[in-house]
Amino acid sequence: MIRVACLTQGSVSDEAARYLFSGTEVDYKYYRIIGDVFLATAEGTTDYSIIPIENTIDGSVSLHTDWLIDEVNLPIQAEWVYPSIQNLIGPLSELSGDDGVLDYSRITKVMSHPVAMAQCLQYLRKHLAHAKLEHVGSTAEAVTIVKDNPLSGWAAIGQITAAWNNGLDVLERGVTDHDNNFTRFLLIGPEPFSSRQSGTYKTSILITLPEDYPGALHQVLSAFAWRKINLSRIESRPTKKKLGNYYFLIDIEMSLDTVLLPSALSEIEAIGCQVRTLGSYPSFTYEG
Ligand SMILES: O=C(O)C(=O)C[C@]1(C(=O)O)C=C[C@@H](O)C=C1
Description:
Distance between the termini: 26 Å
Pfam families: ACT, PDT
Keywords: Amino-acid biosynthesis, Aromatic amino acid biosynthesis, Lyase, Phenylalanine biosynthesis
Number of domains: 3
Structural class: alpha/beta
Oligomer: single chain
Radius of gyration: 21 Å
Shape: elongated
Domain Prephenate dehydratase: 2-190
Helix content: 25-40%
Domain ACT: 205-282
GO biological process, one term: L-phenylalanine biosynthetic process
Bound molecules: prephenic acid
Order of helices and strands: EHEHEEHEEHEHHEHEHEEEHEEHE
């Protein structure tokens, strides 16, 4: 059976993993913090890890990108998007007035994953500016902490299923600042993902530019441009070795098997850039 490492049961990551692997028998191993999700597969305890990497509202998850680049050497084997619908969760009987209606002033603290909370900042500012905000390892962890402390005036931002599973109320549904909020996930691990097929492939590479080479980034991009190779994302991350030194992370809408791509990468290496392939993998769109 496939072993999959994932953030706490009831997290968005958990729901997204079940969506990707629906119809496949999976042994899920849950971890409280993302570093342990990465390490589980790096150390061979699991076959794959589920990594949230980008969100519609909050953009790239820098911490997870840096883990992928610096801390483990596990290829990307699939990407997919999954809706990130956040809700305010807590014990309504403790957080409402005599009329049974939610009374925001009774909430003293809101807990969630930092990325989930970042998706709801306008809502929090409007209704809960008086409350303390606290970051925890996942939305699911926030919900269980609230369940364990029902008389404290605490609420969580998390998933409806986590509220139900913990006997809590959904105080307010859909509290993200924009609709159509999705998170892009990566499946990383040593073996290719074969449970589902996709017609769309991507390749992710990491480029280190040579020092003192004017126009190097321009030349990198032109190697793709004149071959009409489509890029879906380009992002820079610090090398952490010297202030001002950055890697460029590029997502290419093409499989590494396509003849044009290896020649573009060779051309980029020829100008003195280091190219590391982070994976060439199927991409799945969400079909509600
Ligand atoms: O806390 C969770 O539920 C997670 O799965 C983590 C995470 C993230 O790291 O981006 C995943 C997706 C959501 O956008 C918010 C939080």
